[in-house]
Design a protein that fits this description.
With about 400 residues, this protein is of the alpha+beta class. About 35% of the residues lie in helices and about 20% in strands.
Length: about 400
């Protein structure tokens, strides 16, 4: 049966008319924006590098003992995100509305419930309807749909709520150890992937006018609160890069998502640490920043975050408080004899919270303690190849939807 989506038809009609008003044509726009890119050398070379980069990460993760899981593109609940997006798109199916995934964070947690699993990874889809640059500047780094190597590993520390509340020194020592383990794991992943690309894709890198510097562990590290005190709250990453004198470096302790661990957070008297008292050494998350190196000048390019991750909140009580504090849910779930009494107040979080509250036969929580992160595939490719040929993230994608590039995306 022939169907016609009137909304997109009308949008395309208006778009074509606007192009004609400006003296152009739809054919010219398609040729300039898409056909020339698809036929060009830049996309050929970046695609070759992408393939090696992704395969190298897959090989590292499987050799490490992690299991690959399926992609989750829609769910009743998705990552709420700490930054603004235009809205969360929904998909209607079988009489219900599902959210398109901002990330697979909640799916990753649940996939790690089984203690036999060392961890999981997935080359996951992400849909984030990023807000267009308010100043009209081409930021060159955002995509509405993109892919991410999503990774989560079990920590298996089994720290109880009593220890969390009353043995802060011991728990902090364990968390510091696990933070080092997490940073080392992701450094090893990046080192393996970059060394593989440097070995296999030299001709592609040369054609793009860039070089790769295979990093050594440990990468330079900067605490966010110290960086902000020194350079201001925005735009400090490039300045840190000049200090680092390295293609890759860490920024750690960023106040961000509700599931990124803050410790100590809950106090034994039932109160919470005030947000004004949080410092970077209490926030157990991390970003890897990277930039290109220009082949002709040997100078670094612009700095971009390519990986974000954290040790995760793992105990029911602080998880619930964080969700409420971040206004993700309005109230605590109320469970009575297997029924979620206030399920209508919790949106898509109801089933997730019921799964999170489950106990094993010994009365212990089955929810896992984990650390993890996501490597942005397109973002990494853009950060490492930006230079003579690659100017914005669109250049390394076949169908990239950069909110700063076009009023309508044709493919």
């Amino acid at each position: 049966m022939f169907t016609n989506d009137e909304s997109i038809s009308q949008s395309l009609y208006s778009f074509q008319a606007a192009l004609e008003e400006e003296g152009g044509s739809l054919e010219e726009f398609i040729r300039r924006t898409y056909i020339e890119k698809w036929l060009g050398d830049t996309l050929y070379h970046t695609s070759a590098i992408r393939t090696t980069f992704v395969n190298a990460m897959h090989n590292f993760l499987t050799d490490y003992g992690l299991f690959n899981m399926e992609r989750v593109s829609m769910s009743p609940v998705t990552d709420p995100l700490a930054h603004d997006v235009e809205h969360s798109p929904t998909i209607s199916y079988k009489g219900h509305d599902y959210k398109a995934t901002h990330s697979m964070i909640y799916s990753k947690f649940l996939a790690c419930l089984n203690p036999k699993f060392k961890g999981i990874f997935v080359d996951s889809p992400n849909i984030r309807l990023e807000i267009e640059s308010p100043t009209g500047i081409q930021r060159g780094k955002y995509l509405a749909d993109f892919s991410q190597m999503d990774i989560e590993l079990r920590r298996n520390r089994n720290i109880s709520l009593d220890e969390y509340l009353n043995n802060i020194e011991k728990v902090t020592e364990i968390l510091k150890e696990d933070m080092e383990k997490a940073l080392t794991f992701f450094e090893d992943l990046i080192i393996h992937a970059i060394s593989t690309v440097a070995d296999k894709n030299e001709e592609n890198l040369k054609a793009l006018g860039v070089v790769l510097e295979v990093p050594k562990s440990p990468f330079p590290r900067f605490r966010k609160d110290q960086a902000v005190a020194k350079y201001g709250a925005s735009g400090f990453e490039p300045k840190l890069g000049r200090e680092a004198e390295s293609q890759f470096f860490w920024v750690i302790g960023l106040m961000r998502e509700n599931y990124d661990l803050i410790y100590p957070y809950l106090k034994s008297d039932g109160s919470k640490i005030p947000i004004a008292d949080f410092s970077s050494d209490m926030i157990y998350n991390y970003d890897i920043c990277a930039r290109s190196i220009q082949r002709k000048t040997n100078k670094y390019g612009d700095t971009y975050e390519i990986l974000s991750g954290a040790i995760r909140e793992w105990l029911y009580e602080p998880i619930i408080e964080r969700l409420i504090d971040n206004k993700v849910i309005p109230v605590k779930p109320n469970f009575v004899k297997g029924k979620l009494v206030n399920i209508d107040e919790l949106g898509g979080y109801g089933p997730f919270l019921m799964a999170m509250a489950q106990k094993d036969g010994d009365g212990k929580s089955v929810f896992p303690d984990t650390f993890g992160g996501g490597v942005g595939i397109e973002r990494s490719l853009f950060a490492l190849t930006k230079g003579e040929c690659v100017k914005k993230i669109d250049d390394v994608t076949f169908f990239g939807k950069n909110p700063d590039s076009h009023p309508i995306f044709l493919y």
